[in-house]
Amino acid sequence: MATFLYKLGRLAFRRRHFVALIWVALLTLAGVGAASAPAAGNSSFSIPGTEAQKAFDLLEQRFPGMIADGATARVVFKAPSGEKMTDKHNKATVRRTVQELRSGSEVASVADPYTGHAVSKDGTIAYASVKYEVSGMELRDSSKDALKETARDARDAGLTVEIGGDALSATPETGSSEVIGLAVAAVVLVITFGSLLAAGFPLLTAVIGVGIGVSTITALAGALDLGTTTSTLASMIGLAVGIDYALFIVSRYRSELAEGREREEAAGRAVGTAGSAVVFAGLTVVIALVGLSVVNIPMLTKMGVAAAGTVAIAVLIALTLIPALLGYAGRRIKPTGEKSRLLGGGRKRANAEKQGRPNMGTRWASFVVRRPVAVLLLGVIGLGAAAVPAASLELGLPDDGSQPTSTTQRRAYDLLSEGFGPGFNGPLMVVVDAKDSARPKAAFTKVGDEIKRLKDVVTVTPATPNKAGDTATITVIPNSKPSSATTEDLVHAIRDKGADITSATDANVLVTGSTAMNIDVSQRLNDALLPYLALVVGLAFLLLIVVFRSILVPLKAALGFLLSVMAALGAVVAVFQWGWLSGLMNVEQTGPVMSMMPIFMVGVVFGLAMDYEVFLVTRMREAYVHGEKPGQAVVTGFRHGARVVTAAAVIMIAVFSGFIGSSESMVRMIGFGLATAVFFDAFIVRMAIVPAVLALLGKKAWWLPGWLDRALPDVDVEGEGLRTARDHRDADPDEERELVRA
Question: What is the spatial distance between Cα 292 and Cα 233, in angstroms, rounded to a whole number?
């Protein structure tokens, strides 16, 4: 592989005009497709095989006019202090508002609060339910504006009016903190390279890669039902790895220049060596993201595949566009140890007096090699302490109660809880399929009576049958909020009762609704976590065996990852569930951790952790293969790689931290979790635990059974083939021309 990538790097360097033209054309094509595509909204949500989804599908069949997936809105009214919603002037305002809502072009129905028993017992709060003919992602902006305008008119009449539901769902905004993250990345790159031009290449190529990836996602959003969160997460991951991969190759290029090689040769060797690490690091990220499909939740699968596509683009750009840009830059890119004229006047930092002084990476690695047991214990105990809160992990999916208090959705949620109880925001829909029952009406009545006897039930509405009379819906209002464990217990209790009812009446009882759907999602994710871990870690373990030609090094990499991801989950629980530092993180409402968080973090963090593992440890193996002793190889790997890995980690932390300012709770939580996980993995696992373990293992770290060594393909990540080929070229110039011919 190193030889092939070497040829590719030299080809891109020489044919830089052609390579640049290809990427500009791809960016333009993707941009035109995105500009001409309809705006993305919230993707449809389904979890095949669950009871909630089966009930949802049954409703579409038996209640064809119900528009089960149509957008909904709850317009909540509160009377001024000392007044009631039943007062004549307030009632007139509400009914005028209802009439205005009904005139909307996409409105299917509007329920009058006074005829639908939607006024609180104390008479101070009422709500009107609005049902639309299209889903939230298809709802036109004109309909949303009309909804807001109608509420504004009611406010002008003296009422407090807020709007809940998914009709006003908006594209998440990341805020200015994302720009700050990019600014931090730029500063780190300038410090690392000592050159504005060299620092600009990783940023430029990462932005191009994310532009192509996100534009492609936007262009395909309508056809593939991709939501706004999909592109946000793809940009988050694509930007981080895009900068890192380019950083690795530019850094190796400057090292090759410092060793006296010509620029085209240096570009080829940089792509052949660091590029090999980039390819395998990218493969681990892609495996982790595509592996999310095993959960069998279409939305999560789409998010993973879209992000994996962006990562693949980042790899291709690093291997082709970076050497092309290096060709354009020419002598303006300085060897390692030299600053640009703008930042230092062209003088060498590593002058004769400093050449004998080891850099910080060398000093740190030497310390770890001398004290491996102490460093190992300190790192493991520290991560273990950070992971303790993860034992209290509670999972759920966000609703309007997790929105900032500044939003109308959150204020509507609070008003409904105040007027009708916390469970009113998460009603359960019970679907009774009595098609095979001899007495459907009796079955409907029995289901309602049985549910009324259960704990935590406030209200059970009478059964509403369809036209055929073989299926009915019953609405159940719990006494607890939607995300509570008590509500989850109630869902399971209704389902348990349903089994008894089925045996007695031949009627099938199903529980659905957004609350039940969230519970089923959490259960599906919990059940899939261990198989997903086994699949992703297993495939990456095999891949790393091929890369490092070792059993213990990949095993150590996997165990270190588990430590860092558990510690990061502990931090997420402490902040978002317990409320530690909640003000700093803009967490206004603590509660269960998003059910997608653990499995998504496992997928993304595993791939990113392997970036540092592959880049840092391949440098160590390169030194070991070329004759150094195990301990010295660890120090050599840190001398060449620690500065770059540190810069890459700081950049990735900055990029992920930028998403903490998002208005979307899911994006904010994932941004914090990933930033924390990268910190733990890069600075504790890869910088401390890894060298300590390798120092303790010595030569055993690189042991591989002979039969397995013969069976595995030789991918030559260390670039040994390039060294051999160079020796031949030194002897025969004709062979050099043959090697670089692409």
Answer: 14
Taking only the tens place, the pLDDT of each residue in 646-672 is 888 888 888 788 777 776 677 788 889
Q: Which of 240, 253, 178 is nearest to 213 (CA)?
A: 240
Q: 176: which DSSP letter?
A: T
The tokens describing 699, both together, are 């030569």
- 679 touches 651 (CB < 8 A): no
HEC sequence for 620-669: HHHHHHCCCCHHHHHHHHHHHHHHHHHHHHHHHHHHHHHHHHCCCHHHHH
User: If you ran DSSP here, which 8-state letter would residue 658 be given?
Assistant: G
What's the mean per-residue pLDDT of the chain? 83
Q: For residue range 612-657, list pLDDT tens digits in order.
A: 888 788 888 878 887 889 889 999 988 878 888 888 888 888 878 8
What value, to the nearest 5°, has the Cα angle with vertex 246 and ends 242 and 247?
A: 110
- Which of 310, 134, 125, 111 has the alpha carbon at shortest distance from 210? 310
DSSP state for residue 42 in the 8-state scheme = P
Nearest to 512 by CA among 432, 629, 585: 432
Q: In which element (H, E) is residue 429 found?
A: strand 428-433
| Single-letter residue type at 740 | V
Coil/strand/helix, residue 194: coil
- Residues 294 and 532 sit within 8 Å (Cβ to Cβ): yes
Relative to beta strand 593-594, strand 395-396 is: parallel
CB-based burial label for 233 (10 Å; 0-12, 13-18, 19+): buried
Nearest by Cα to 335 from 268, 251, 404, 272: 251
Supply φ then ψ for residue 39, to 5 degrees.
Answer: -65, 140
**What is each CA distance from 175 to 657, 660, 663, in whole angstroms?**
11, 9, 8
- The confidence band for 727, taking pLDDT boundaries of 50, 70 and 90, is very low
Task: Please tell me the distance from the alpha carbon of residue 369 to that of residue 603, in angstroms, as a whole number.
Answer: 31
